[in-house]
Design a protein that fits this description.
With about 90 residues, this protein is of the alpha+beta class. The protein is built from 3 helices and 4 strands; from the N terminus they run βαββαβα. β2 and β3 form a beta hairpin.
């Protein structure tokens, strides 16, 4: 399992406009289990409504866990996505 933490910089946090492309990015890694955790609450990143319910705001740190066959590449790609979009 690969794990990284990211502090959200988007002024609105994780919201509908950012979660849709995030889910699309996660779908690029079929067969992987990819989750996001905030304050002890963990949800699958493919479930956009669950991600939105986490209500992640600017300045909050989330933990992303990636497990699967090519988890290193998936974690690197997702971390880059977070830096560029969130």
């Amino acid at each position: 399992m690969k794990t990284f933490q990211y502090t959200i910089t988007d002024p609105v946090g994780i919201h509908l406009r950012t979660v849709t492309p995030l889910v699309k990015k996660v779908k690029e890694f079929p067969g992987h289990e990819i989750t996001i955790t905030r304050d002890g609450n963990t949800v699958n990143l493919l479930r956009s409504s669950a991600v939105l319910k986490l209500a992640v705001k600017q300045g909050e740190t989330v933990t992303i866990n990636v497990s699967g066959d090519n988890e290193e590449a998936a974690a690197v790609a997702l971390e880059a996505f977070f830096r560029e979009n969130l």
